[in-house]
Amino acid sequence: MTIARPASATVLLPADFTTVVTEAGMIVHGRVIHTSSALTGPQRAIESLVTVQVIEALKGSPSAGANVTFCVPNGQVGRYRRVVVGAPEFAQGDEVVVFLRVRGPAIPTLFGLSQGVYRVTRDAAARAIVTPAPVTAQGPGAERVVRGDSARRPMPVEAFVRQVHTILETR
Amino acid sequence: MRSVLLAIVAVGLFSQPASAYLHFRANDDGQSIVLKWQRMPLRWFARDRGVPGVAASDFQAAMSRAFATWQAVPTASISFQFAGFTGAEPFTDDGVSVLGFQDEPGMDRVLGATAFLIDVVTGEIIESDIFFNTAFLWSTAAAGTASRFDLESVAVHEIGHFLGLGHSALGETEVHADGDRRVLASGAVMFPISLGPGVTRDRELQPDDIAGVSDLYPGGGFRGETGVARGRVTRSGAGVLGAHVAAFNPETGQVIAAFTLNQSGEFEIVGLTPGPHVIRVEPLDDADLDSFFDARDPIDIAFRVTLHDRLFVAPSGGVGERFTVSVQPK
Lengths: 171, 330
What we know:
- By secondary structure, chain A is mainly beta.
- Chain A has helices at about 15-25, 155-170, and strands spanning about 1-5, 10, 25-40, 45-60, 65-70, 75, 80-85, 95-100, 110, 115-120, 130, 145, 155.
- Chain A starts with a strand and ends with a helix.
- Residues about 1-10 of chain A have low confidence and may be disordered.
- Chain B folds into two domains: about 1-210, Collagenase (Catalytic Domain) (3-Layer(aba) Sandwich), CATH 3.40.390.10; about 225-325, Immunoglobulins (Immunoglobulin-like).
- In chain B, a hairpin with a 6-residue loop joins β1 (about 25) and β2 (about 30-35).
């Protein structure tokens, strides 16, 4: 059974993109090569480990080709499925840029659940694009975010990576 | 809040909602199961743990008020029962539904969240837990407390999930040069972004929330007295997945919305007050798609906002005339 979920169950404090970049301990562009679920931890809850093969590390030490594993609080063990609405789900083959919170020896987690993952897809010309692109202000003042704004388009992954590097260099 | 929303609508820029539910689809036989509770009352436990400023008894009282808010919806048939305090943590898969404070260092920037444990063979919900993040300061004061998050408001949102509702996209935000993003207005408690500390507005349900829960647990003449809009959103003749479709009633000012949830671009908006509605379709290009959908699906966000070229008239009971909205690429 798979979820066709239009759903998520969280109340989020939105993190601006700069905060996501600067507070994440590791940022990785890669492809999911493995997922597994298990009943883990002192809380006896189903969690999943997601392993990504690194295409490029934007922050942190992993090199291209290395594997990075992080934990998400959902998954399925046998006939029992745990859904934390708001926690992204991953499958083998997904191409993503993930922003990870790293705390000592613990397995990394996504920064702010769904705020810590950007999906990479292919457009009609087979270019790798990040969609939706981060919402950022264009000018010095407050700007209302208008859906359907023609200026807001999927961002080529190269431009997304440059944006991350620019933030890291100016901080 | 309503006046703010109406002003937004008046200039044709209203943001939208979604009386969206958690839908499950079986792999083996393609059967679709809506995630909802089969038996009432829904029993819940409160964790016997307080945090600075909120004792465990205050917590239980705030949760009871939040449950009562949903139970008071006249067009829905739901009931809850407080089963007592427990030492168990909320996010434990133990077969009982627990609400409480919990340390969740892996969920920074998450005020609260709801988890389900589901038997995928039967589709039955085994339990649903709600945690409130101890990393934040909380308040149960009647008028709220500046610099603290209103526990009851967040609980009302999470209990909406507990009942099976997904997120609404009925809200509008602004972004600042420093990257900060704030909510300007929201048209549903189920909008996923916090209104901020000290704000208590989300203690009160809005039409989109009421329509969503009434559709899941209909009662009080809901089906017979409200109308349903069904249709498709297409682009170059093909269905659009993930489009946000809102129905605005100019007479009442109410906005209720839904998403297109399949590859055919079909949508259904329930709970409409009989009468004419303006239909608006927009892409969800400003949101975390993972917060609304399975973002691995081909959600289309690259089209223009489109108003349907005629008014939709909701009947008093039943489904109105089907229609198709054709959108153009950006």
